[in-house]
Fold this protein.
Amino acid sequence: MSDLSQVKALVFDVFGTVVDWRTSLINDFTAWGEKRGIKADWTALVDGWRGVYVASMDDVRKHPERGYVILDVLHRRSLEKLVEQLAISGLDDADLHDLTMGWHRLHPWADSVGGLTRLKTKYIISPLSNGNVALLTEMAKFAGLPWDLVMSAELFQHYKPDPETYLGAARLLCLPPEQVMMVAAHNHDLTAAQKLGLKTAFVARPTEYGPLQKYDFKATGEWDVVATDFGEVAGQMGC
């Protein structure tokens, strides 16, 4: 059992770990399409959108001369390409904006708010997400996420898993890395954090990608905490 007595703050991956992005977006867009009279394979759009998520951030990484680009902008660029590929017609600029803002309207997993609320009684809690500040702030309002502050890759001008994000979070909190715990449903996120000295907690979200899920069904590293939900994380952290 790892010594977690010095942990002061928990920082969280958000998409997939705290919120159920896939179900949220599919339901949101299906209802939106019915209201607007627009027919489309919304499931294909959502899965395709998430499918190009990493590549869109990698493009920012590969071209530092262009400057940092926030996730809202990357999402909009990806959406425009997908709408064309999927032959979704009848969308104007306002429609594309509303769909992009769907990422601000994601619902939490059933255990998220309760678990975070328990953890907040003892620890500083914050997102550490590739989502931009406005996205994460509006999502917190929508989903009732009780963050103490909002930390985003935008603050560090680097997307995870760049070291600048994890070390930047510790620096802003005025804590050494070993007093910060990264919580995620993705083993690769925890691998990057652990290499930099952060403590780690894995929470399984085996339905994140629905029938398309191919990995992260279970912990594959030597993480400090392994749990099935946020309530179990809280219990192991003494809350």
In short: The mean pLDDT is 95. The two ends are 17 Å apart (CA to CA). The chain is about 45% helix and 10% strand.
